[in-house]
Design brief:
Distance between the termini: 41 Å
Number of domains: 3
CATH class of the largest domain: Alpha Beta
Structural class: alpha+beta
Radius of gyration: 20 Å
Largest sheet: 9 strands, antiparallel
Number of helices: 12
Number of strands: 19
Helix content: 25-40%
C-alpha cells in the first residue's frame, strides 16, 4: 500500500476490544473498517462501523462474502482453523495477514511448541496427553504439580488446569475435553522469577520490536503490566532477540506477542505466542511513539512501521476486570481520570461479569516503583 485511500477496507476476524483498538487506528488513517463476529451478543467493534457481519468461524462460506468486501483481512483472535483461513483467502481473493501458512505454524499449543523448538528456541517442557499412562509418565519425569491445557482455544484461565496429583489430572483431562477428542497438553511447572512479554511486528518494510515488559498474573489472568520489565537490561534484550527470531521463523506479517518465563538462573523459556495485538501491549497506546494497534494496521496494510520507543521512562497498565454481574457501568473513576499522565480505556462491552476484561488504565511515570504504587492506588476503588 503506497497511499492512503478512503475506500480501502481493512477487515477483522473477531470483534472484541483488540479489534476495536486496532480499528480506531485504521479510522485515523481514513480507512473503512469491516468486522466479522462469531458471537451472538453485540461486540465492541460492531458499534463503530456499518460494515458488520456475523457467522461461524467453522463455516468458510459465511466468511467469504465478508472477505470479498475487504482489501485485507487480519485476526483479532486465534479461535479459527488455518484450513478455513486458506479456503476463505483462496475463494475470496482477499489476502489474510498473518498468512494462513504462518498461522498454521502456531495455531495450537502443540504445533506452536514444535515450531519454535525446531527453530532452536527453548520452550517449556511439554507432552501431548492421550490418557492416564501419559499423565503418570509426565508426572514422573517432570514432577508435580504441572499444567494441563487445551491445545486450542484457551485464554484468561479458560482451558487451563494446574494439577497436583494423578486423580486431579485425570479429572482435569476429562473436564478439558480429552475424553471427547480434544488435544490436551501437559506442561511442566516452571520455577520462574518473572513472566515477561515482547511484541514484535513485521512486514515487507522491516521488523520492529517493543520493549520487554513484565506481566503480573493472578489465576492465569494478566492483571497488570510493568514497562519496561524490572529485570537486567541484558535479559530484556535477549527476550527481544528471541521474539524477532520467532516471528522470522514463521515468516509472520503483522504483530505477534511472545510470552516468556524467566528462570532463576537467568535463562528464558518461550511459553506462548499470539498472532495479534496482546493485553501485555496495551501500555503502548500512550507509552510508545507508535502503539501496537497502529503498527498492527501498518503491518498488514504494507505501510512503514512506526517507532516502538517509549515516550516516558516507565509505564504501568492495570487491567480493570468486572466486579459485578450486571450491565456495564464503570464507577469511581474520578481520581484515575484526574491524574496527570493517567489514561482510562473502556472497551464498550455491554455486560460485565466478575473477572471479565472490561477496561484498562495506563499511568506513565519516571520511577517504576512510584508509578506502580500510584496506578494501583488510583484503580483500587473502581467498580464495573
Amino acid at each position: 500500500m503506497k497511499s492512503l485511500e478512503s475506500t480501502f477496507t481493512i477487515g477483522f476476524l473477531g470483534a472484541g476490544q483488540l479489534a476495536r483498538m486496532s480499528a480506531q487506528q485504521a479510522f485515523r488513517f481514513g480507512m473503512q473498517v469491516a468486522v466479522f463476529s462469531d458471537r451472538p451478543e453485540d461486540e465492541p467493534v460492531q458499534f463503530m462501523t456499518p460494515h458488520s457481519y456475523s457467522g461461524s468461524f467453522d463455516e468458510p462460506s459465511s466468511m467469504i462474502e465478508f472477505a470479498k468486501r475487504c482489501d485485507v483481512i487480519t485476526l483479532e483472535n486465534e479461535f479459527i482453523n488455518s484450513e478455513v483461513l486458506k479456503e476463505v483467502q483462496e475463494k475470496s481473493g482477499t489476502p489474510i495477514l498473518p498468512s494462513p501458512d504462518s498461522f498454521a505454524l502456531i495455531e495450537n499449543k502443540l504445533i506452536e511448541k514444535e515450531t519454535f523448538e525446531n527453530a532452536g528456541i527453548a520452550v517449556t517442557p511439554y507432552r501431548l496427553i492421550t490418557g492416564e499412562e501419559d499423565i503418570q509418565n509426565f508426572g514422573k519425569e517432570h514432577g508435580w504439580p504441572f499444567i494441563m491445557k487445551s491445545s486450542k482455544g484457551g485464554y484468561d484461565g479458560y482451558g487451563n488446569r494446574t494439577v497436583k496429583d494423578l486423580a486431579d489430572a485425570v479429572k482435569a483431562f476429562d473436564q478439558l475435553g480429552g475424553n471427547r477428542g480434544h488435544e490436551i497438553l501437559a506442561e511442566a511447572f516452571v520455577a520462574f522469577t518473572h513472566e515477561l512479554a515482547v511484541q514484535a511486528v513485521r512486514n515487507e518494510t522491516g521488523v520492529a520490536v517493543y520493549p520487554c515488559v513484565e506481566t503480573v498474573q493472578e489465576n492465569h489472568i494478566c492483571v497488570a503490566v510493568k514497562a519496561p520489565a524490572p529485570v537486567n537490561p541484558e535479559i530484556q534484550k535477549e527476550a527481544q532477540q528471541i521474539a524477532v527470531k520467532a516471528i522470522e521463523a514463521i515468516e509472520g506479517t503483522g504483530i505477534f506477542a511472545f510470552e516468556f518465563f524467566l528462570k532463576a538462573d537467568g535463562s528464558l523459556l518461550l511459553n506462548e505466542s499470539a498472532p495479534r495485538p496482546h493485553n501485555s501491549g496495551h501500555y503502548t497506546i500512550e507509552g510508545c511513539i507508535t502503539s501496537q494497534f497502529e503498527n498492527h494496521v501498518r503491518a498488514v496494510c504494507g505501510l512503514p512501521l512506526g517507532s516502538t520507543r517509549m515516550v516516558k521512562p516507565e509505564a504501568v497498565m492495570i487491567n480493570l476486570l468486572g466486579t459485578h454481574k450486571r450491565e456495564a457501568i464503570i464507577e469511581h473513576v474520578q481520581d484515575a481520570m484526574n491524574e496527570p499522565n493517567g489514561h482510562l480505556h473502556s472497551y464498550g462491552k455491554l455486560q460485565s461479569k466478575p473477572g471479565r476484561k472490561m477496561a484498562h488504565y495506563t499511568l506513565l511515570g519516571d520511577d517504576l516503583h512510584k508509578t506502580w504504587e500510584r496506578a494501583n492506588e488510583l484503580t483500587s476503588g473502581i467498580k464495573i
